Amino acid sequence: MTDRLDWLSFRRFAAFTTALTLSLITLGVYTAATGSGLACQAQWPLCSDQLIPALTINPDFIEWFHRVVAMITGFFILGTAGWAWKRGDRRSRLASTLAVVLLPLQITVGAITVTIGGLVPGGYSPPTHAAHLVVALTIFTLLTLTTLFAFRQHHRRPPRARSRLAVGVALGALLVSGLFSRGVPLLNYSPGAQAWYYAVSLVAIGALLAATFWLSTADRVGAWLAGGALVVLFGAMLLGRDLVLYTAAVQRLNFALYFLAVGIVAAVGWRLRSNVESVPTGQSTSSN
After folding, report:
1. Which segments cross the bilayer (predicted)?
2. CA 43 to chain centre
3. Is the full-model pTM beyond 0.90?
4. Are 248 and 176 in contact (CB under 8 A)?
5. Between 20 and 30 A from 240 (CA), which of 64, 175, 186, 192?
6. 21, 136: one domain
């Protein structure tokens, strides 16, 4: 029992909740991209007069499954906040509580898009989808920060070493996301491609948040650069959700934002590599 309790720690629970939220956002993008948000005859909690629709890949099932995962994720977010108040520090409590505060807003926007969209002007429309994504990304950011705060006292590597790893993950994720990006015309921007793009981009978002957090005390310039890449990537992700009419000019802007994000992350990686090489052998770096 002791080993089990030691394994089930707050930091691992927070990390799992964050990963579950990433999966939910990806599923939400796929649901919207396939038009399945208009399924279930705009009913809730029933779906086309059924509690559980036919378990085959169809619009009703996709929308129903998204609702189920959203409900489970919501309970995990509540559990993370509750555990933070019991075992976490002040910052993890604040971040997780803000995530809980945003849950009703996210649920409301979701309801507008899939149930009462016909009663609200622009209910099921790209701007509403963008708002849904913005709130979801904010919740994901807060949960990522909660996880980072929870792991703060459990690192064996110094901040720069951790940051190099995070920047490497972010750069790799960005390069992969470019294969599916709407701004980089390599593949058809199908529902599956959209889901993959946002899944991999969220990995990059999480890695950049970690790098920004760890560099805040070790390399402020590097932290600002990583944070800038985070903002640029966030803008590119919003453009992919039709925040504005996606014209050829907007696609070029999206293309430019993507390569700007890649360039900034590569610059941060080079900066960290150069800084490490300039440190004399045997000199250690402080850890936060």
Report:
1. 12-33, 64-85, 97-124, 130-151, 163-183, 195-215, 222-240, 252-270
2. 28
3. no
4. no
5. 64
6. yes
* Domain final residue, candidates 154, 170, 200: 154
Closest to 26 measured CA to CA, from 201, 189, 210, 178 = 201
90 vs 83: CA distance, rounded Å: 12
Q: Which residue range(s) make up the domain with 222?
A: 157-288
CB 237 within 8 A of CB 198: yes
Check residue 159 and give its pLDDT. 81
CB atoms near residue 251 (< 10 Å):
17
**226 and 107 in one domain?**
no
Quick: pLDDT tens for 202-259: 999 999 999 999 998 888 999 999 999 999 999 999 888 777 778 899 999 999 999 9
Per the structure, the count of domains in the chain is 2
Task: Please report where in the chains the tokens 């790098």 appear, as a residue.
Answer: 211
Tell me how far apart the alpha carbons of residues 160 and 149 are, in angstroms, rounded to a whole number: 17
- Residues 169 and 150 placed together within one structural domain of the fold: no
Residue where the block lists tokens 């959209």: 194
Count of Cβ atoms closer than 10 Å to residue 42 Cβ = 17
pLDDT score for 118: 53
Q: How many residues does the chain have?
A: 288
Let me know whether 54 and 2 are in one domain: yes
| Same domain, yes or no: 52 and 64 | yes
